[in-house]
Design brief:
Helix content is 81%, strand content 0%. The chain is built from 11 helices and no strands.
Length: 238
């Protein structure tokens, strides 16, 4: 679990995503999906605050962010309420198939981009769905990463966009978990302990990201998406 947290934090520092996608499936094998989601909510909130502040200068270069935030918050509350009742296996497999399809498309046509006119119509349902995934499974990164990557944003703007969404979703998730009385003393201690490897590895990944060419950054995001698809299928089958 420590290794998964460390690698996930390093990848998140580079791409803005990857921490829950890599950490939660591994943690769930030992402590269960519900407990893993609740524990990960604390380091997830802290890491996203750090990335948003670090990349705040790129805020004007984002697209459709307010719409994604608004609908995502609604989805997060709904998904968190359904955390103990929803079967996330089919959601994971379907999302993995979506990721593989998108990565295949980008590899065949690297210049493909989602037009602003179309994204204005797609952003509300994507925000709602990604928020629902965050609340129910603790992992909205694969869907958001796939969607935002199709915009063709600059690396810093991409990281700011996805970190802002994760921050809002994480905050809504934490508030909902508090309202539901989901946090126990043990879970809080575990959540704050999980911050330690994240605090060490996240800045190292961010430092590497700032020195990286845009095309290399794009390839790493695609590779991270494929890894997330594998993790989702593994989690579903396990």
């Amino acid at each position: 679990m420590l290794a998964a947290l460390s690698v996930g934090a390093f990848v998140k520092g580079i791409t803005g995503a990857g921490l829950p996608q890599l950490a939660i499936p591994v943690m769930a094998l030992f402590i269960g999906i519900e407990r893993a989601v609740i524990v990960m909510s604390i380091p997830g909130l802290v890491s996203n605050i750090w990335l948003v502040v670090s990349h705040s200068k790129s805020a004007p270069e984002t697209r459709d962010l307010p719409v994604l935030v608004g609908t995502g918050v609604v989805g997060t509350v709904i998904g968190t309420v359904l955390l103990t009742t929803i079967d996330g296996r089919w959601l994971s497999i379907g999302l993995a198939a979506l990721i593989v399809g998108y990565v295949t498309l980008r590899l065949r046509n690297p210049q493909a981009r989602l037009r602003p006119g179309l994204s204005r119509w797609l952003s509300p349902p994507v925000g709602l769905a990604s928020g629902g995934l965050q609340g129910a499974t603790g992992v909205s990164g694969p869907l958001l990463s796939t969607y935002l990557h199709s915009f063709g944003l600059k690396p810093s703007a991409y990281i700011f966009s996805i970190s802002t969404l994760f921050l809002i979703f994480s905050f809504a998730q934490v508030v909902t978990l508090v309202a539901l009385g989901a946090y126990t003393t043990t879970l809080l201690v575990e959540g704050f302990l999980a911050i330690i490897p994240v605090a060490v590895m996240l800045p190292l990944g961010a430092r590497l990201s700032r020195r990286m060419p845009a095309h290399t950054f794009s390839r790493i995001v695609l590779a991270t998406l494929l890894a997330a698809a594998v993790a989702l299928v593994w989690q579903a089958l396990a």
